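Workshop exercise sheet. Pairs work together: one partner reads the sequence aloud, the other fills in the structure field after running the prediction. Swap roles for the next sheet.
Pair: D.N. / O.F.
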Amino acid sequence: MSSNLATKLREGTKKSHTMAENVGFVKCFLKGVVEKNSYRKLVANLYFVYSAMEEEMERHREHPIVSKIYFSELDRKESLEKDLSYYFGANWRAQVAPSDAAEAYIARIREISNTAPELLVAHSYTRYLGDLSGGQILKNIAKRGMNLADGEGTNFYEFEHIDDEKAFKGTYRQALDELPVDDATADRIVDEANDAFGMNMKMFQELEGNLVMAIGRMLFNSLTRRRGRGSTELATAE
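Structure field:
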């Protein structure tokens, strides 16, 4: 039985994917403008989201649909814990909490886990396929943007238990296509994936204010330094 769900998800979420990439925070990130305080808040939100998703996926690991795309090697919770320890220090647990958008995202994951577990497929697809597809690129952007050394603050992008990420994506997509779902269920999964993109966008949008202020500070400091140099040069000339 083939549902062609992988193709339906790819085609059915194209618009949402493009919209997510055009959120200000994401556009700045992709251009190499990365502000550490905003980024660590994102890491904290992702920690809570992935913790909820992975807990519910584990809970339904014997479910006739969820079990087919349950791959523990994709889990991100531990890698995010390492990053949080780097950004916040050893007592990071006392310093982080989910934002309003993350809380809503988590609540939705818990809700469908209790009422329609098959929709967890949409959340798994939205997060993990994106992580696998752009992980190394985003890792390098984060390293350059925040002047990070190798292995510092970028564990989220490392899939230690997956040797060939491209091959694994093929395995994952094949598993999606082989899910025992009818057209109506496939459509519901696609709709949920679009909602998941929307929830991710709201988390990004929450961070835009911090990023704008950070960019403003950087520009102000840059202009101040230039003016300072100009005054010194003028005084020297005189």
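Discussion prompt: The longest helix spans residues 208-237. What would you look at next?
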